[in-house]
């Protein structure tokens, strides 16, 4: 019995040593989580960035290299995290497809919820931030529809059935 127990201990010690010194990965890999930027608070050198999850990012950047809509806030929140309607705006702006990002002018929270205005003046009415990616796909489909040449707004509350109205603005190219 003692020999069997001693053999088992030797096997366990040998297996542990082999794992520890031969098999185990000894390298350290650094990972950097780059936040998905959605908007900014303020303008020029005083601007701070906002991630799509509402986190305020205080490191600097070159404003010429990136186009982010400005949230209608006078200053960033003290806790470093957006809440309420500003958070909903960040979540919607964080879901914008890259092809449409350069057409974003501003965002606000109005009577219908989150409203995003394009540089052409067209208003996209999202309601809340739920299903934001699906609502952006619906907006892109409406804006890409060759049958639609002018409109004032796109209501995206029900992304499977977006509603359009008005004829005040022409579509972006």
Describe this structure in words.
With 173 residues, this protein is of the alpha+beta class. It has one domain: Rossmann fold (3-Layer(aba) Sandwich). The chain is built from four helices and eight strands, in the order H-E-E-E-H-H-E-E-E-H-E-E. It has a five-stranded mixed sheet with strand order 4-5-6-7-8, covered by helices on one side. The protein is elongated, with a radius of gyration of 26 Å.
The low-confidence runs, each spanning 5 or more residues with pLDDT under 50, are none
Q: What is the subunit arrangement here?
A: single chain
Structural class: alpha+beta
Per DSSP, the total helix count is 4
The proportion of residues forming helix, as a percent range, comes to: 25-40%
| Biggest sheet, spatial arrangement of strands | 4-5-6-7-8
The proportion of residues in beta strands is: 15-25%
> What is the N-to-C order of secondary-structure elements (H for helix, E for strand)?
HEEEHHEEEHEE
CATH-level-2 architecture: 3-Layer(aba) Sandwich
User: How far do the termini sit from each other?
Assistant: 84 Å
**CATH-derived topology:** Rossmann fold
How many domains make up the 3D coordinates?
1
- Give a count of the beta strands, DSSP E runs of length 2 or more: 8
Name of the CATH first level: Alpha Beta
Silhouette: elongated
- Using only C-alpha atoms, the radius of gyration works out to 26 Å
């Amino acid at each position: 019995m003692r020999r069997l127990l001693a053999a088992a201990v030797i096997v366990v010690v040998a297996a542990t040593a082999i794992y520890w010194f031969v098999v185990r990965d000894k390298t350290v890999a650094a990972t950097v989580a780059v936040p998905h930027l959605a908007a900014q608070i303020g303008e020029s050198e005083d601007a701070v960035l906002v991630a799509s999850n509402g986190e305020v990012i205080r490191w600097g950047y070159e404003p010429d290299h990136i186009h982010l809509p400005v949230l209608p806030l006078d200053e960033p929140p003290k806790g470093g995290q957006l809440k309420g309607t500003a958070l909903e705006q960040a979540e919607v702006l964080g879901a914008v497809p890259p092809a449409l990002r350069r057409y974003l002018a501003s965002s606000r929270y109005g009577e219908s919820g989150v409203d995003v205005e394009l540089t052409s003046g067209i208003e996209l009415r999202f309601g809340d931030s739920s299903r934001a990616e699906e609502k952006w796909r619906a907006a892109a489909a409406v804006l890409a529809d060759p049958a639609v040449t002018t409109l004032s707004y796109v209501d995206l509350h029900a992304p499977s059935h977006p509603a359009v109205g008005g004829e005040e603005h022409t579509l972006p190219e």
